[in-house]
Amino acid sequence: MQSHRSGARVNQETGIAAVFDFGALVAPAGRASTASGLLRRRGSLETVLRDGLRGAPTDGSHRRFLQRVSRTLAGRPAAEVAAAGEHLFRGGGYGHLYPEAWQLVRTHATQGHTVILTTSLTRAQVAPYAAALGIETVLCTELAEEDGILTGYVAGKTPWRTGKSEAVRAHAERGGLDLSRSYAYSASATDLPLLAEVGHPGVVNPDPTLSAHAAEQQWPVLRFAPRRAPTAADAARTVLGLFGLLAGSLFGVLRTAHTRDRRRMADALMVHGTRWALTLLGVRVRISDATKALSPRPAVFLFNHQSQFDVIVVPHVLVGGVTGIGKKELTRNPIFGPLLRFVGVTFIDRSDTARAKAALEPVAATLRGGLSLAVAPEGTRSYTPEPGPFKKGAFHIAIQAGVPIIPVVIRNAGEIARRNSMIARPGTVDVAILDPIDVGDWDPNDLDARVAAVRELFVATLLDWPKPRDPAAASTA
């Protein structure tokens, strides 16, 4: 399939569906998939929702699951069950999403295909995953309710075996979708009726029965690797890396202290601290074109944010002459807080819009004084490789200061450390620095479309990663 790059022509193939079974998108969840205190206090509710996520069901396990749903959820408010599913996802379930699945889903969506998630699980279990992947259409087991209270019964037919293919067929008829030109992906042989409905079936990490059938039918087989949980060795390496961050930062400051130049000391802190940390963490940073980080300056560097370790990767890539904006909560971090304060980061209270805007007013003056700014415009870390919605603060600052915006696209940061994890795993982080964007003629009162276009540059780059223009220009650490 053709993926999207900014400025490239994309064939919009309307009337085509891309149907994903839940098991093709998400690795089976383990028992440690939740960390929510709220859900621990609601053991039976947590258990019934979580257990359904642990692998491809059989006829027997699916029947028992429906019985448990009826027994456990009857009489509960639907909103409470939906909130429990959201807590499961945010508490660790998001870590089981295959990054390759996000790319496949997004590529189909970019082609204009109608993306559908289908599963025999309940909406409370899968809705957070669908939302994170940008999938609007979910065909699942719907639970009957009266006045917002679950009755314990299933509303309609359960999407299981032929029920799943029937649900997809009915939706296709209502939406004018041509299944003969459509795609479907599954990991289980129980979905053979669904795969037979479409013109382009595919299998992802198939079970033995489905694998044999796919080989016989010459269906494409995709292999997505489950991401392993951090180990004790990873934890020890992370402690060593954070020690290296502190030691390298101190080395950089002491090495330049004789200059009495705070900016020079801050730059040395970032250069040596991040280099030592990444080396000890076993993290390699591969930059597509490192020269773009150096010119033009000053500039507002925008980076997508998926890992807590982005605050190490970004200053390493930009090599000094830069400060940032951080959320107020970072001041309480015993390691990053003092370091960020020393390099002049502006901290904002996102809960108070007026104070946040006031705190940003001096930043434009900082840029006009020659110091660049690195900002994560999402404002928070994303659950998938796809950047979340961009806030407009950094764009307003660039316009006020009269400096360009430079996108810094980070790939695989979530492979190093999951969104909420403070433990890093060794690996490679790719960074692509895109061409500067002149904001001189932008109207501050009409930013929505401009901001959306910049965000789409990030998505396009993640889907179609650029090759180094000159292999010699690629940088590693």
Automatic annotation (TrEMBL):
Its EC number is 2.3.1.51. The HXXXXD motif is essential for acyltransferase activity and may constitute the binding site for the phosphate moiety of the glycerol-3-phosphate. It comes from the Bacteria. This is 1-acyl-sn-glycerol-3-phosphate acyltransferase. The keyword RNA-binding does not apply. It catalyses: a 1-acyl-sn-glycero-3-phosphate + an acyl-CoA = a 1,2-diacyl-sn-glycero-3-phosphate + CoA. SMART domains: PlsC. It is an enzyme of class 2 (transferase). GO terms for molecular function: 1-acylglycerol-3-phosphate O-acyltransferase activity; hydrolase activity. Transmembrane segments: none annotated. GO terms for cellular component: membrane. Keywords: Acyltransferase, Hydrolase, Lipid biosynthesis, Lipid metabolism, Phospholipid biosynthesis, Phospholipid metabolism, Transferase. It holds the Pfam family HAD. CDD domains: LPLAT_AGPAT-like. SUPFAM superfamilies: Glycerol-3-phosphate (1)-acyltransferase, HAD-like. GO terms for biological process: phosphatidic acid biosynthetic process. Gene3D superfamilies: HAD superfamily/HAD-like, SG protein - dephosphorylation function. Residues 299-413 form the Phospholipid/glycerol acyltransferase domain. Belongs to the 1-acyl-sn-glycerol-3-phosphate acyltransferase family.
